[in-house]
Write a structure and sequence with these properties.
seven-stranded mixed beta sheet, 255 residues, alpha+beta, 9 strands, Glutaredoxin, 16% strand, single chain, 48% helix
Amino acid sequence: MSSSFVRYLALGGLVVGLAAIAWTALGGDEAGEDSAASLGAAPVDDPAVIDADAGSVVDGGDAGGATTTVAADAETETTSTAAVEVSISTIVTTTAPPEPIEVLGTADTLTNLDGWLNTDATSLEEIRAANELTVVQFWTFGCRNCKNTLDALGRLYTDFRGQGMEIVGVHSPEFSYEADVDNIIEAAADLGVVWPIALDTDKRNFHRWQEGNIGYWPRVYVIDGDNQIRFDRTGDGRATYEQLYDTVERLLADA
């Protein structure tokens, strides 16, 4: 084999190699474009761009796209506001009125008393006749639970005394030192009890008003103008005296 033939053979191989490289380069670009198209990638010169701040797609060829988005948001906000207003209206209109205050029975009277303090009245009937409501509490000044109620009664007296309500504290002593009138007068002054006090020294009324084997200090009643009991509770619970206040306020408003 001559050296010239070898040179021609090598040159031919070089040409074929260059042609293969060129073909591969051209075919690869086309394949890349096809692959990009198959994956849904947008061409670089596509007028649609993503507005990263707004978080939406804005049509670069038509500014109306942005306006449409704002209008839709405004309409959604208006609809939401209307829905809230409807919900509030529904809540207001469906609120149930308070339960009526029951009649619990007819009130008794106070008899065989040893006198009255803080008043010129001589009977419960006289006090009831002068008022729309009478709050009657059985208590004794040495009772811790009774003393816990006096601030609430003081507020009641201050707020409603001039509106047709009176309080009567029926003092029914538990111990002998509580039966002494001078001790009652001193304790009433110290505790701020300024409403009428009926002296039930022998606890006759205490036991007659509270039927059964057990009587309670304190026990409080509300008696209306028809001598009907509208409230009856025992103990010194805060909720009890909040309910007492509410009952008096409502009954006076309806009187």
